[in-house]
Amino acid sequence: MRESLLQIVTKMQDKKVMLIGDMIADVYLEGRISRISREAPVLILEHTAENVVPGGAANAVHNTATLGGKVYAVGIVGNDFSGQELTRILGSKGVVTAGFIPDDSRPTITKTRVMAGGQATVRQQVVRIDRENKAELSPEIEQQMIDYIQRLIPQMDAVVLSDYGGVTVTQTVLKAAIEACHRHGKPSIVDSRYKVMAYKGITLVKQNESEAAAAVGLKELDTQSLLDAGKSILSDLQAEAVLITQGPDGMTLFEKTGKVTHIPVTNVSEVYDVTGAGDTVVAAMILAVAAGAAYEEAACLANFAAGIVVRKPGTATATPKELRDVVGGHYEAR
After folding, report:
1. How far apart are CA 290 and CA 298, in angstroms?
2. Residue 166: pLDDT band with limits 50, 70, 90
3. Which of 24, 134, 177, 219 has a C-alpha 20 to 30 A away from that of 290?
4. Where is the Carbohydrate kinase PfkB domain (predicted)?
5. Going by C-beta distance under 8 Å and a sequence separation of 6 or more, which residues neighbour residue 107?
6. pLDDT for residue 276 is more than 80
């Protein structure tokens, strides 16, 4: 399989992927601990830096672009600094951001983390402040997004729906996207935190264990209920394949043919940080499928890609070179 996977990584490059979802700005406010305030029992931090990192669907965009895809991002941004920074950062990675629909009635979804540290202290998060308007999209904004999606999908190689529970991927939007994919023969994948069962007709489904359990009305999954959940989601959504990620236990692929494949992690001993790894799985999976990979091959590459990013702190990405190196190294070591 080694040579086949390496060829797929090459074919993944420059595949056009439309990624629709909740674009989130992760803001990190860095401060050096100065003293305890006299106003209240809280730390006073001397501001040292402020960084904006793509989060939510924007992290999936970033991952897909870093793996070599030509990404067309579609989502809602506010007329604010966070939205401008997301647009700038992703644009600098070659992402087409013409599908970012500005909505003056709401801020860009922003998660601000205040990070404190000092010479003799470990850097840690003190508080997180979330900023989001959860009111429904206006019909005009929603239609702008749908018009862009329907106009561009014929040019795409694949489509991703990255639903973090925000207001972006409405029922109307997801239905229009899935129908357009069917009409033009484009593979699609969904990663939805709370409402995956709304995505009937999607090609591929990615869920983690807790999301899959919730989708079928369970609190958690054991060996048998995992199998039942995967098959149930596959059948109910009329999908071609369902991939359930299981953290240190790897991932399990369910295919429409009835085949079930368990894929173990490549090196659990080196896990550092699982933040954002699910977005890496989605990015690698859809790029591989767009490149002509079989679902099992795509899932294996997604597993290798996830193994790369969990060894890095924070919301990290994997490059084609890193993916080639880890695939080659894995099979040489066997």
Report:
1. 10
2. very high
3. 24
4. 15-321
5. 78, 80, 82, 83, 131, 132, 133
6. no
Token pair 């840690």 in the structure block, residue = 124
Domains and CATH numbers, the chain: 1-23+55-109+132-333 (3.40.1190.20)
Q: Check: pTM over 0.70? Answer yes or no.
A: yes
Distance of alpha carbon 305 from alpha carbon 286, whole angstroms:
12
CA torsion sign, 308 to 312 to 316 to 320? negative
Which residues are part of the catalytic machinery? 279
pLDDT of residue 330 exceeding 90:
no
pLDDT at site 122: 80
CA 72 to each of CA 32, 67, 90, 153, 216: distance values in angstroms, whole numbers, following the listed order: 38, 14, 10, 10, 32
Percent residues over pLDDT 70 in the chain? 96
Tokens of 191: 């990663």
